[in-house]
Amino acid sequence: MKQTVKLVLVRTAWMIGIFVALSALASFSGRLEARKEGAYRLRAALFINGTLGDKSFFDSAAHGMQEVRRTLPVAVRVIEGGTDPTRWESSLADLADSGDYDVIVVGTFTMVPYVQKLAGQFPHARFIVFDAAVDYRHCNCRNVHSILFRQNEGAYLAGYLAAMLVRDGLPGISRDSSLGVVGGMQFPVIEDYLIGFGAGAQAAAPGIRVASQYANGFSDPAAGKEIARAQMAQGAAVVFHAAGASGQGVNEAASEAHRYAIGVDLDQYALYQRSNPTKAAAIITSVLKNVDVAIVHAIGLHLQGKLAYGSTESLGLAENGVSLARHSAVLESQPATRMEQIDKVRQEIVAGRIRVPSAFARSPDPAAATT
Fold first, then answer.
1. What confidence score (pLDDT) does residue 191 get?
2. Among the listed residues 126, 129, 156, 124, the one whose alpha carbon sits nearest the alpha carbon of residue 294
3. H or E element: which one contains 311?
4. DSSP 321
5. Distance from CA of residue 291 to its chain's centroid?
6. C-alpha span between 246 and 216 (Å, rounded)
7. Across the 371 residues of the chain, what is the mean pLDDT of every consecutive 10-residue run?
8. Which of 43, 75, 128, 309 is most buried by a 10 A CB count?
9. Residue 234: other Cβ atoms inside 10 A
10. C-beta separation of 204 from 164 below 8 A
């Protein structure tokens, strides 16, 4: 009896050993086959210092990684770092230390100090930083490529359009109405939006009042809604928001008050057109920061060995880094001459005949950039 049991155990162990060996061989062969067939040539991770679902900046970045997976031979992973800033550095360090990814993509200025620190510690890793730039003079960052956006140019077009529509007449809106802006937090990228929007508004309607306030966060729709409602109570007919998920509260306030909103990063009219037509009807346009396009472009250049690590690139209207969404119920109800005028202003900016003021290089007179 004991010999029978022993024989069964030996055979079972032998079969398990064969199974494990075959599984390992199959896994190894699968990896070799993937490499052989070119299933992927690169492993890339996007680290988000926040969460998905903002219908704005982070969702745009994640969409870019989806496009990378769809169009390029790249294995992709998106990691949500959460909203606790004390965990971001350690999470990013673990990601770099794992060695699982050839390229790590990360955005926003809050992550710059961590990238500057880790780039030197992990010289064989490659980092792509978007919407911010490392200080190459003070860090060993030859393995970092930085992408900046000239968001002030897109915001200028939005301000010009908003002021033009108000002065020419929007349904249910007094022509002497003002404008509003809700920013997420007060730092240069967001200030750049506010300055550009204000300059565009003044160019289209000199003297128009533009109220601005910060929500002090990018994930608080209630705060965005409260600020927008206060601005509308003071006469704002159109409120532009550059506040991440906090801006969704602005969209709600505009819809409820029968006023108008201008979104940011993603085409927010398109986002709500089917799921919430009432909310969509209040959205005139969105200042598109084409983070997704920039990420796809950068990783594509990396695959070709052409991405300029150790340097910063700047993307604006000319490079399609920023743009203005062109379709909405409001815009389609307007004469074609409205968008023709916006196209003319865009061409003037691209040609350098209009210099849009910026938070990164302040002009003494923000209203000086006119047509």
1. 97
2. 129
3. strand 311-315
4. S
5. 5
6. 9
7. 41 40 35 47 95 87 96 97 94 95 95 97 96 95 97 98 94 93 95 98 98 95 98 97 95 97 94 95 96 96 97 96 96 94 98 96 42 31
8. 128
9. 11
10. yes
The three-state secondary structure class of 9 is helix
Residue 38 is predicted with a pLDDT of 54
d(CA 259, CA 162): 12
Output the pTM of the full model: 0.82
Conformation bin of residue 82: beta by default, left when phi > 0, alpha when psi is -120 to 50 = left
In contact, 155 and 289? CB cutoff 8 Å: no
Q: Which amino acid is at 43?
A: R
Q: Are strands 178-183 and 126-130 parallel, antiparallel or unpaired?
A: unpaired
Q: Which residues contact 151 (CB under 8 A, 6 or more apart)?
A: 189, 192, 193, 196, 242, 287, 289, 322
Q: What is the C-alpha to C-alpha distance for residues 172 and 332, in angstroms, rounded to an integer?
A: 17
Token pair for 352: 């350098």
| Residue 20, pLDDT score | 37
The secondary structure of 229-283 as a DSSP string is: HHHHHTTEEEEEEE-GGGHHHHHHHHHHHT-EEEEESS-HHHHHTTT-HHHHHTE
